[in-house]
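Pilot study result, target chain (697 residues):
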Amino acid sequence: MARRSPTIIAVDGRSGAGKSTLALELATALRAHRNVSVFHLEDVYTGWDGLAEGRQRYVGQVLESLYWGEDARWTSWDWVHDTDGERRSTVAADLVIVEGVGAGCREARPYLDAVVWVEVEDTARRRRALERDGDTFAPHWDRWASQERGWLDTDPVPETADILVFNPADGSAPADALRALSQLPGLQEALRPEIQAAATPTLLSRRLPLPDAAIDAAAVFERHFPGAHAVFLDSSNAGTPGSGRNRFSIMADDGGAAATRIEHRAGTTEVAIGCTRTRLAGHFFAWLDRNWGTARLEAPEGLECGFALGWLGWLGYELGRESGGVDNTSSPTPDAALLHPGRAVVLDHERSEAWLLTLASPDAERWLDATETVLSTRGPVGPRADTGAAVPRGFTAADSRAGYLDKIGEAQHQIAEGNSYEICLTTTLRADAPDPGVDCGGGFDPWAAYLSLRRSSPAPFAHFIRWGGIAVASSSPERFLSVDATGLLRAEPIKGTRPRAADPVVDAALADDLATAPKDRAENIMIVDLLRNDLSRFADPSTLRVPRLCAVETYATVHQLVSTIEARLLPDASRSEAVAAAFPPGSMTGAPKISTMAILDRLEDGRPRGVYSGAAGYFSHTGAADLAVVIRTLVAQRGPGPDGGWRLGLGLGGAITADSDPAAEWDEVRTKSRGVLQAVGTTFDAEPARDAATGRP
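Predicted structure:
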């Protein structure tokens, strides 16, 4: 028998959480486009000890009928006479909201399209419940609460619910919950009118000339975006001639009512919208496909940056499991972390102007006015003084020199066996640092570390991301992949590195050596071929071209060998699938990608790379995206507890080929560490880790 049912949404939670109010206000909002019925479980509880039997009646008399599109006929409970009451009915409307303690219980789950769990702190729940029901409920609170606890001990609905609502009782929960419901794949058709309305937001913008060239992007970010979750895509080498990739800086945080953020971990995406948290099972790139570009916006006239609001953040290396990589490593940081801000600032360094972008909201004009006032103030504006970034004197390597050289030997054996052509082997440096709030001598400050890094090692794809207890400070010079609004794909891999020298003659010789070294050119060309293959999966093959091959670019601490690959997306190709096909960056895996990633997992002892080797940047509502490879990057994660310090990690590595010199590869790792470690006042001189088997360095 074919099912002809309404969409059924359960609103569950303990007594006093505000379920009834939330359900009724959701019903009011949803009635704008469809018929809606509401069922209250309190009508079928069989007295003050009747939570269990009430759930049985709810499932057997209400849900089983509604599920098949039939009006439900059920027996109510007469609370005055403590016995069965009259027969009532609930119409099988287009959408039915069922609310009450147990609405999302295990027995009900097969009949439900979504479960919303409403959570409130215990003392507030009791106060609210007694204020609502007065003396009627007070004598029975403990016995009813005991039934709730007993049920939840065996049926942990909060852990399995699709949406959690942390109800602040300030009127925000219904709107946040409706936005959260629209994230659920199973409700996309049922909530199509609401989703379509949200997909056409109004973008407000202002274009401001900057009155003083001394206004610093870091100062603007520090002053205007202090949120716990914030992203700063910083062309910190703005003004350097010749790059063409250092024109714009973008910054935003989670301030404002429209902000949304997501975290993806091993097959589950959690979406934070206001007071709600939505759990979505499935691949991250499937989520990205639904959410990137669905609210297609035109960039304001004159803004040549591809970003006109959208998603900003990182994709971690372990997300490669969705592209065929190994699936046995769990990272302590999210596999993906993206912020959708309601407002942002874009600085155009070439034209010395700022763009203020915001979605229409009650406070949008106030924010535009306040931000314009500050940015229009004459006089130099810089970030606060660098208070230092205290770090232990040196980092400890996950691999000793001898151990790393052994791994290079094994990598070359795999190449000789024909299992790979090039293997991008990495290691990790780690250190612990105190938090400044608990160390009177001054602790580690991620923002201070980034300020130091951007001064000493400016780069076109530098970025600072503050994500709760995680901070990412990067001076990346490498573009992973960009997509413009017209569908032009561009990758710019870096393979080949030489240190800078203070003597100009020696420095020029090092750059020339890099440009002509057969081994470095071979590394670079192999990655170019890999990326040509990645891009061709969703691009017109006839548009593939390599306008730049093995060009030397010079940065503050290193010379790099860079190539450019371009192609144009096929007309009906999915942009998110094109990104997935190229992820993780080939310059951080080697070739062929999938088999080499399996080799790397073994060589690196199953150690997660986390944010390192992934990508960071934006996915704009214009359809554009620009992502950097996460290299030259310090990742700091705060320890547990109020006195927890910071755990610091710096990933490093290089491409191994058949003719690699192991000692030279180790020296290259040290060279690549120099920029970040010098910025935080330390060196790669600590006693190396000891081999587990021998106990020797």
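One observation from the pilot: Confidence is low (pLDDT under 50) at residues 686-697. A full batch analysis is planned for the follow-on phase.
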